[in-house]
Structures are given as structure tokens and as C-alpha cells.
């Protein structure tokens, strides 16, 4: 009786506190285990696969009374996503000079891109809503720095074992008629390099683990600043030493990639960081840049790298194709300037003749993809002015909003966005480059939220 009375006097038992935390594993798992996803044949498919648990966890936090915050400028991104959806209405249109197809035949590629844009939107929201206790900015920076190391290792693999490839478990599970499609194969079939005749003779151009040499080069520029921030944010001299070794070694696959866009991006990256440092009063950068330039010059002269660069600059085989596709994209924009055509189109033949085209033995022979030669041209062609303004507006707003962030994260994050504006002239952003862009945006956003901008 005494025990019963004591319980009654104590009143009702307290309600169980709902779990409001967001675990780090959806973001950390994508980055830390990316080599595994690549080897399994998941690769970029890991992003939509992780979307469901991230949405569930965000909704659980919201149900527990903790609202999901939106990043500054998110309205611009919503405009872009709406434009992507609305532009599907024009999917059945066949602009002049393109291969006629039914809208249903184009729907698979469009759904794929839309799902990736949606997945990366969720990634942005999830990474931006994580707290320091859940996934610190420092740890996220280290993870991104690790992705640069992975990029360099993949580049070296592509150089020394350019023909290395294997059938992934996911690929084995697919019917032969599906896995032999070029688009599907690019998603699920791991390989080290793309073999191309750029400077005379077939040569391997690093691609692992990003699928394409252009994507490899794009990610190289986006991730390099994070390695520097990760190494110099700690006190250990060993970490700085190995970061410098990695940066020095990275020059070799960067040159071997024959990727002029990458070289331009690295130059822009160094120039932007130098300007930001000078404006912040860190004048030591003015002494460092000549040292870096001298080291690169010596490396070009004393090794075969210089000859590789010279040969690439003397062989601009892709210039004509790029100009042809830019003209096609601009012509298409005039035909549907507001919403575009919902997706890319294949040209009738090549730039010199319309009589060369696809066949059962060669899916891509003679046909070029309008909008496949750079994110900017894809935006204006596939999603018109509405999509282009929304996409550019979001990242440009971020640059402006976080312009006073002089911290290492602030400079590295804004540098990634600046280089992406250059890269969009010749690289497409889906999937991993855009993922690293939104993670850079999330770090800038969290820095601003925490007030750590100096």
C-alpha cells in the first residue's frame, strides 16, 4: 500500500523524449564508402538510394518539434526544380536538326536526371541541418579532402592500368539487353580510364572512380581546396606533409588527363584563393604563388609532362564539336526560350554531314548530344531561361550571401562554387560534381549559422 501511494503521489510517468538527432551515416557513408559503392556498381546510384533514409530522418526530427531549416536563397533552387518539372511538357518536341523521337523514348533519361536533382536537394538539406555534435564541419571537410585523395588515386590507376575494368555485382544482376546499353554501362560498370585518341594514338585518360574523364577533372578542382583545409586545420605536421605530397603527385594525373578544362579550373582556383587571401590581409600568398609557379615550371621542363601539355594544346580536336554544339544549344534556346525542351537531343549526324548516325553496332556514331558539352548549355537548352536563372541564381546568391566569410571553410567553399561556374562551360554537373557543390554550399551555410566566418 505504501508503494502504491508513493507512485500515485509521484504523478504520471514522464513521457519518453523523442529522438531529434540526425545521424551522420547517410552523408558520411556516401563519402567514406564511395570506393565500395563504385566497385559494387552503385556509384552515383548511391545518392538516390540514400534519399529515402535522409527524408525519413528529417521528417522524424520535424515531428519531434525541431523544424527543418532551409538554406539561404533556397527559393532560387525551387524555381530551378519547378522549371525542370514543367519543361517535361516539351519532351515530345523535335527541334530542327535533331533525331526525331517520341516523348516516352526520352522519358527514362529525364526521370534519371530529375531523380538525381531531387536526391541532391535532399542531400543539401540534410547536410545543412546537421549539428556540430552530429557531424562536425571539420569532419565533413576531412571527408571531402579524402575524396580528393581518392580522385588522385583513381587518376594514378587510370594512368598505369588504363584498361582495368570489371563486371560489378549490380551489373551481373541486370539482363544482358539492359546492361549492354551505353548509358546503363556507364553507371554500373567500373573502369579506370577512358581510352581516347586526343594527341595521336589511343591513350588512357583517368576517370576512376567518377566514370568520365571530364567528371574526374571537374571533381579534382572542386575537392582540392578541401584537402588543404583539412590538413591545415590540425596541428600535426605529418598531415600537412602528406597533403603536400598528395598535391604534388596530383599534378601527374592532372596533366595526363589531357583535360584543358581542368587546367583552366586549377588556374582560376589559385587566382581566386590568392585574391581572397590578399583582401583578408594574408599577404603571404603573394610569396607562395611564385614558388608554386616555379615548381610547376620545373616539373614541366624536367619531366615528360611538359611535352604532354604542349601536345594537347596543339591538338584541339574537340573545339569544332564544342562550337557546333554551342550553336545548336543557342538555336534551340530561341525556339523554346522559357522552359526549353525538357532534356537533351541528339543531332542528325555530325557537324559536317547528316548522313552519319547511330546503328545497332555503334550507339553514338555520328550523333552528338546537344546540351552534353557543359552544364550551362544543358540548362538553357533543356530547361530554358527559367531553369538557367534558378540554377545560377542559387549559387550566385550563395557567393554573395557568404562573401564576408573569411574562414578557411568560407574561402574553400566559395572557391568550389567559383570554379564550378567556369567548369559549366564544358562540363556537366550531374551527379558527383553537383553533389560536392551542394556540400560546399551546406558548409558555407552552417558556417554562417554558427557565426564562424573569420
TrEMBL record:
The keyword rRNA-binding does not apply. The chain crosses the membrane at residues 36-58, 70-90, 110-128, 140-164, 216-234, 241-256, 262-279, 286-305, 380-400, 430-448. Keywords: Membrane, Transmembrane, Transmembrane helix. The keyword GTP-binding does not apply. This is O-antigen ligase domain-containing protein. It comes from Actinoplanes sandaracinus.
Amino acid at each position: 500500500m505504501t508503494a502504491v501511494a508513493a507512485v500515485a503521489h509521484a504523478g504520471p510517468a514522464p513521457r519518453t523524449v523523442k529522438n531529434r538527432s540526425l545521424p551522420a551515416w547517410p552523408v558520411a557513408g556516401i563519402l567514406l564508402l564511395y570506393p565500395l559503392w563504385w566497385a559494387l556498381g552503385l556509384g552515383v546510384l548511391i545518392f538516390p538510394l540514400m534519399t529515402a533514409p535522409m527524408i525519413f530522418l528529417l521528417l522524424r526530427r520535424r515531428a519531434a518539434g525541431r523544424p527543418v531549416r532551409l538554406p539561404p536563397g533556397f527559393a532560387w533552387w525551387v524555381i530551378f526544380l519547378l522549371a525542370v518539372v514543367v519543361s517535361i511538357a516539351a519532351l515530345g518536341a523535335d527541334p530542327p536538326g535533331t533525331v526525331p523521337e517520341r516523348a516516352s523514348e526520352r522519358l527514362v533519361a529525364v526521370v534519371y536526371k530529375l531523380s538525381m536533382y531531387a536526391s541532391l536537394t535532399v542531400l543539401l538539406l540534410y547536410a545543412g541541418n546537421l549539428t556540430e555534435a552530429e557531424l562536425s564541419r571539420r569532419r565533413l571537410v576531412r571527408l571531402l579532402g579524402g575524396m580528393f585523395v581518392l580522385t588522385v588515386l583513381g587518376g594514378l590507376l587510370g594512368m598505369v592500368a588504363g584498361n582495368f575494368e570489371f563486371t560489378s555485382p549490380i551489373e551481373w544482376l541486370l539482363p544482358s539487353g539492359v546492361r549492354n546499353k551505353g548509358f546503363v554501362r556507364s553507371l554500373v560498370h567500373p573502369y579506370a580510364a577512358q581510352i581516347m585518341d586526343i594527341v595521336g594514338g589511343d591513350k588512357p585518360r583517368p576517370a576512376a572512380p567518377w566514370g568520365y574523364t571530364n567528371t574526374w577533372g571537374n571533381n579534382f578542382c572542386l575537392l582540392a581546396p578541401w584537402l588543404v583545409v583539412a590538413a591545415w586545420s590540425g596541428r600535426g605536421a605529418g598531415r600537412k606533409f602528406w597533403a603536400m605530397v598528395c598535391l604534388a603527385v596530383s599534378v601527374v594525373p592532372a596533366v595526363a588527363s589531357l583535360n584543358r578544362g581542368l587546367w583552366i579550373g586549377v588556374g582560376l582556383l589559385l587566382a581566386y584563393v590568392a585574391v581572397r587571401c590578399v583582401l583578408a590581409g594574408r599577404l603571404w600568398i603573394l610569396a607562395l604563388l611564385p614558388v608554386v609557379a616555379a615548381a610547376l615550371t620545373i616539373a614541366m621542363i624536367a619531366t615528360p609532362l611538359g611535352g604532354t601539355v604542349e601536345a594537347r594544346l596543339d591538338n584541339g580536336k574537340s573545339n569544332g564539336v564544342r562550337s557546333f554544339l554551342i550553336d545548336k544549344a543557342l538555336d534551340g534556346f530561341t525556339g523554346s526560350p522559357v522552359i526549353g525542351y525538357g532534356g537533351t537531343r541528339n543531332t542528325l549526324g555530325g557537324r559536317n554531314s547528316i548522313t552519319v548516325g547511330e546503328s545497332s553496332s555503334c550507339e553514338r556514331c555520328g550523333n552528338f548530344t546537344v546540351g552534353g558539352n557543359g552544364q550551362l548549355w544543358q540548362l538553357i537548352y533543356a530547361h530554358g531561361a527559367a531553369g538557367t536563372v534558378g540554377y545560377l541564381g542559387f549559387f550566385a546568391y550563395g557567393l554573395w550571401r557568404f562573401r564576408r566569410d573569411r574562414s578557411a571553410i568560407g574561402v574553400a567553399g566559395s572557391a568550389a562554387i567559383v570554379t564550378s561556374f567556369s567548369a559549366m562551360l564544358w562540363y556537366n554537373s550531374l551527379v558527383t560534381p553537383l553533389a560536392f557543390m551542394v556540400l560546399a554550399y551546406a558548409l558555407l551555410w552552417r558556417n554562417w549559422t554558427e557565426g564562424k566566418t573569420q
